[in-house]
Amino acid sequence: MGRAVQPYELIKTKRDGGRLDPADIRAFIQAYTAGTVADYQMAAMCMAVFFKGMDSRELGAWARAMLESGEVLDLTDTPAVKVDKHSTGGVGDKVSLSLAPLAAACGVPVPMISGRGLGHTGGTLDKLESIPGFDVNLSTEEYRRLVREVGCCLIGQTAQVAPADKKLYALRDVTATVDCIPLIASSIMSKKLAEGIDALVLDVKVGSGAFMKRDEDARTLARTMIGLGAEMGRKVVALLTDMDQPLGRKVGNALEVMEAVDMLRGEAPEDYTEITYALTAEMLVLGKKAASVDEARQKLRRAVEDGSALRKLREIIQSQGGDPRSVDDYSLLPQARSTVDVVAPRSGFVTGIDTEGVGLAAVALGAGRQRVDSKIDPAVGFTLLKKTGEAVKEGEPVVRVHYNDEAPVNGVKARLLAAYRFGDAAPAPRPLVRERVE
Ligand code: URA
C-alpha cells in the first residue's frame, strides 16, 4: 500500500515555501496518476511550485515519481546507441519533423515520445496528426518494432509511458503553470528517460517565444535537465537556441509539415535549416555515427542531397499509417479555405517580433488549444513574409493568415500587428545557437 496522501497539507506546505518530503511527493504523484488527487489540487500544487520552486532533492523525487508513474521502455533489441532530441518549446519549431528522419537516415535510431501544443507553443504530435492517417497512438510493441526496423518512431505518451506527465502537461497548458523550471525539467526528463534512449540532445529555447525569456534561466533549465539525466545514467547535451522570433516562416500544424519537408529537400529558410543541422549533428556524435560535429554535418548534408532523409520521412509516415504521398503533394495535407494579409503600417525594417504574441495569435486562430478539450484546426496558421532585420514598405504584407473560421481573424490580425515592431534600422543579427551546455 502506498503512503496516505493529504493533498491539502502538501499544497499548503509548498504554498508557504516549505520543503516536501520525497516520499510525500511520490505518493502525491501516484495519487494524481490514479485519479485520487484531483486536477484542481494538482493545479494548485503546480501554482505553488511556480511561486516557491523546488530544491534539488524535491525535484529529483518529483521527476523520478513521474518517470515511475509508468514503465521504462526496453529497446535493447535495437543494439545501436539510441538518441532523441527534445525542445523546451517554441513557435514555428518544427525541428523534430526534419531532425528525426535525418538522424535515422544517418543510422541513429530515434525513439521519440512527443507532446502536443503547450501554452503558446506548438507540439510535434499535433503537427504529425495533420498528415492524413498518421497514428501517434501506437502500442509499446509496435513502437519497439518500428525503432528496430525503420530506425524511428514518433508517438505520444501512452498509459505506459510517464502517464503522470501526460495528465500534468494538459493541466499545466491551461492553468498558466508551464513556464516554471522544475516543472518543465521534470516533465521533459520523465518522458524522455522512459522512452528507452541512451542519450539525449536538448534544444533549450530562449527569447520572447520561449518559456525561458532570459539566457540565465535557459542555462539553469539546461543544467537542471542535464543533472536529472546524469542522476539516471544518461548522457545529455543541450544547445541554447534563439527563439526571439519564430523559427522558419511557417507557424501552424500542416504548414509546418510542409516547411519540414522543404528542409529535407534543402529548400527551407536558413535559420530553421541551421538549427536542425546543429541539433542533429549532436545526435550523430552521441550516437557514434560521426567523430565530430563537422563530420556529422557533412553526413547530414549528404543525406539531404542524395534524398535519403526524404525517403526516410516517407518510410516513417507509411510505417505509422500516414499517407507518404503528402510529402510530394502538399494538396493532400489540410488546406485553409482563405488567406488574408497583415500589412506594414510604415516603411523601414522589422526590428523585432514578440514571438509569444505570435504563438498566442496562432492559438486564437485555432492552431492550438484554449481548453484541455479544444479541437485544433490543422490547416490554419501563418506564413511570415517578413522577419526581424528585413526591410518593409508601408502597406507591404508582413504576415499571411491562413484561416477557416472568420470569427477570430480580426483579433488575430490585431495581435500580429501588435507583435511586430518596426524601426528605421535593422538590428544586429543574433546568433542562432547561443550556447552549448554539456
Ligand atoms: N516540453 C515538455 O515536454 N514539457 C514542458 O513542460 C515544456 C516543454
List key phrases describing it:
transferase, 1,4-alpha-oligoglucan phosphorylase activity, glycosyltransferase, Aldehyde Oxidoreductase, domain 3, about 450 residues, alpha/beta, thymidine phosphorylase activity, Transferase, Pyrimidine Nucleoside Phosphorylase, Chain A, domain 3, globular, about 15% strand, four-stranded antiparallel β-sheet, binds uracil, 13 strands, Thymidine/pyrmidine_PPase, Pyrimidine Nucleoside Phosphorylase, Chain A, domain 2
Structure description:
This protein has 16 helices and 13 strands. With 438 residues, it is α/β, with parallel strands linked by helices. It folds into 3 domains: 2-53, Transferase, Pyrimidine Nucleoside Phosphorylase, Chain A, domain 3 (Up-down Bundle); 83-327, 3-Layer(aba) Sandwich (Pyrimidine Nucleoside Phosphorylase, Chain A, domain 2), CATH 3.40.1030; 334-423, Pyrimidine nucleoside phosphorylase-like, C-terminal domain (Aldehyde Oxidoreductase, domain 3), CATH 3.90.1170.30. It has a 4-stranded mixed β-sheet, with helices on both faces. Strands 6-9-11-7 form a 4-stranded antiparallel β-sheet, sandwiched between helices. Strand 4 (199-206), helix 10 and strand 5 form a beta-alpha-beta unit. Helix 5 (95-105) packs parallel to helix 11. The protein is globular and about 65 Å long. The two termini are 40 Å apart. Uracil is lined by residues 88-89, 115, 118, 169, 178, 183-184, 187-188.
